[in-house]
């Protein structure tokens, strides 16, 4: 069967049901907690192929997933599983026709890669760490360090917004460059303090606002989770005058399975 | 050294539960392996403004935002320490010592005592912009 989209085949999809795929795990009998529900509150189950299995639930194709509740359900299923087993997350919104197709198109052709990846992820979870500047403090450093910035600031700050446009742009440009240099330095100091304690890390590339320093996914051995959290708490305390640290997780290892499709 | 397992009560590290939609989007958007799906859906009706708001390009607009932020400052100018000094303080501080002791254990456990064995280069996500694949 070839790939279709809901718009091209609206009529077919009105009555069809599909198989929504959350991720891939090493098969075990008691993996899915009783009563675990996924998208549309459908029961979550396993589709097994040899030593691995896809985590799936049935879904009505008349209403493709993509709502807020669907995103939340997708992440809740994966994060709950990640607490007890290694799991390879699948991209949100992936639906196959039926169980046979899950085996034939995903589990069988990707088998060796899945097994390898699951071994690598065994006993590990992901934490997302973001560092942002305490903007007032860091901007004050910039003003204090550069006489031209200080002079431009004195000149423009009490003028109406539409006055001194050229000076404002120049001020912003200088501040922006100074912040960029600080960011590079601070990001590398922070990462040096963090990376020795994690199994792997990956930049999350969220772009970043004016206050952005670091946004990174950390792969952490579960046995060390508490110690890593304590280390980060200590780090947050040490840098809190200039930088705020925000930690989300543990979550499923979304950033450590590669982005490309190989199944 | 005695291992203390108590949770630090300092609370400097923000620990939001990833329950809000913006947090969930941020964690899972464009993440996970891509399979050859029968039906692949887009994020219908999801508010993606939170993502767009974070994209910053070097432009006059950005500069003006920096200028405005700088001019809003209520300056209390003071000598700044650089970050390395703060972190140095942490490692010398009494309370932090327990932490760094525990962390040394972590490092040993992860790397087998060596340095950086398992460190990987950062991977870039393929394309953050890809979010709608069907109309």
Walk me through this protein's architecture.
The complex is a heterodimer of chains A (263) and B (135). Chain A has 263 residues and is of the alpha+beta class. Chain A has 2 domains: 10-122, no CATH class; 125-256, no CATH class. In chain A, 41% of the residues lie in helices and 24% in strands. Chain A contains 8 helices and 9 strands. Chain A has helices at residues 10-15, 68-82, 99-107, 111-121, 135-145, 147-156, 165-194, 225-239; strands at 17-26, 45-49, 52-60, 87-89, 94-96, 124-133, 200-203, 212-221, 243-251. In chain A, strands 1, 2, 3, 4 and 5 form a 5-stranded antiparallel beta sheet that branches. Chain A has a 4-stranded antiparallel beta sheet with strand order 7-8-6-9. In chain A, strand 7 (200-203) and strand 8 (212-221) form a beta hairpin. Chain A is elongated. In chain A, 48% of the residues are buried. Residues 1-11 of chain A have low confidence and may be disordered. By secondary structure, chain B is mainly α. Chain B has 5 helices and 2 strands. Chain B has helices at residues 21-28, 49-52, 60-72, 83-92, 94-111, and strands at 13-14, 39-40. The longest helix of chain B has 18 residues, at 94-111. Chain B is extended, with a radius of gyration of 22 Å. Chains A and B meet through strand 1, helix 2, strand 5, helix 3 and helix 5 of A and strand 1, helix 1, strand 2, helix 3 and helix 4 of B.
